[in-house]
Amino acid sequence: MANVEKTEFRLPEPQPKASPARSADVDARAQEGEADQEVSLRPRSLGEFIGQPKVRDQLDLVLTGAKKRGVTPDHVLLSGPPGLGKTTMAMIIAYELGTSLRMTSGPALERAGDLAAMLSNLMEGDVLFIDEIHRMARPAEEMLYMAMEDFRIDVIVGKGPGATSIPLELAPFTLVGATTRSGMLTGPLRDRFGFTAQMEFYGVDDLTKVVTRAASILGVPIDADAATEIASRSRGTPRIANRLLRRVRDFAEVHSDGHIDLAAARAALIVFDVDEMGLDRLDRAVLEALIKGHGGGPVGINTLAVAVGEEPSTVEEVCEPYLVRAGMITRTGRGRVATALAWRHIGLEPPEGVMGTLY
Question: What are the boundaries of each domain within the chain?
């Protein structure tokens, strides 16, 4: 039976660790436990998780009901764009249940034997997290059906006419699947999840709380209006908010006393090419190619990609989703079209006929 690499996470209570010895010449200002602080930005419990109120309330009911009955909870499917907290939510589920979390990803499960090796090592009540579950190989996915439903798998031993099927009982477990493309999940797999949660983009208020909490953990003093400024440029995504906070922290420590005020936040975000709507260099290059190079469109994705020197998949998967959601471009049967908002964002007045978000 093939083995697959897996990572097991235990969630004990945090323990203070002695910081390693540092040379004063190399790291005179390093704080004790700084590396641990960087890791601890993820919330540990549902009570600490910011945003997604519907998902939190629904998941709390699922977990609490299962604990009261003394059974393993139903399998959970978390879907939504990257960076909204699907992996964090899987860790929280294991923490709330007081069990171990084992993590893998769909692309890593290429053969049924890979999945069988992982499932056979699960203890009762464990949480198995499969990221990008829609990218599992079909043989592994078909084995997962029986494991999710009956906590049993059939292992084939031998080949040809002499092959034998050996049933293997599994300890009851909870599968948490995460996907950024729920439409690519097969019907049989989707139907076996007892609870499905759709993670939504965050509002500025929730992201401001995320930034404020992260700054507190990192020991970075930050003004309320600076936290809001960072949050407003984070594309509705906590992962981006935390990344921008770290870069603004770097700027504040290099150019001032480390305190983040509104002026420092704005200056830092200019240095890192993040404008007031959260667009970066590539986003603006796409808009300029669409508007200045092709009069606002319609333009095909391949033409836009050539114009900005990127792969079509990069433009379509990295830039386009946010530009569409922000109301800057629309997708039509003939190609991408810039809206009036996009024209004004790059400093041009839209020509007559460009109305709102549509041509």
Answer: 7-12+32-198, 204-271, 281-345
CATH class of 281-345: mainly alpha
Known active-site residue 196: no
Among the options 72, 87, 104, 174, which is catalytic?
Answer: 87
Catalytic, 223? Answer: no
Architecture of domain 204-271: Orthogonal Bundle (1.10)
Catalytic residue check, 180: yes
Q: Is 29 among the residues known to form the active site?
A: no
DSSP states of 247-316: HHHHHHHHHSSS-B-HHHHHHHHHHTT--TTS--HHHHHHHHHHHTTTTT--B-HHHHHHHHTS-HHHII
Tens digit of pLDDT for each residue in 291-333? 888 777 788 888 888 887 888 888 778 888 888 888 888 888 7
Beta bridge partners of 128: 102, 175
212 is known to lie in a ligand binding site: no
Confidence of residue 159 (pLDDT cuts 50, 70, 90): low
Q: Is pTM, for the whole model, over 0.90?
A: no
Question: What is the reported pLDDT for 244?
Answer: 92
Query: Would residue 239 show up in a list of annotated catalytic residues for this protein?
Result: yes
Residue 67 marked in a binding site: no
Tell whether residue 173 is among the known ligand binding residues.
Answer: no
In whole angstroms, how far apart are CA 318 and each of 83, 85, 323?
Answer: 13, 18, 9
Q: Are strands 335-338 and 152-157 parallel, antiparallel or unpaired?
A: unpaired
Question: Which residue in the list 180, 212, 228, 339 is annotated as catalytic?
Answer: 180
Q: Is 228 annotated as a binding residue?
A: no
Residue 162 DSSP SS3? helix
Active-site residue among 190, 239, 243, 247? 239
> CATH code for 7-12+32-198?
3.40.50.300
192 is in an annotated binding site: yes
Model confidence pLDDT, tens digit, residues 241-264: 999 999 999 888 888 888 888 988
Please tell me whether 83 is known to bind a ligand.
yes
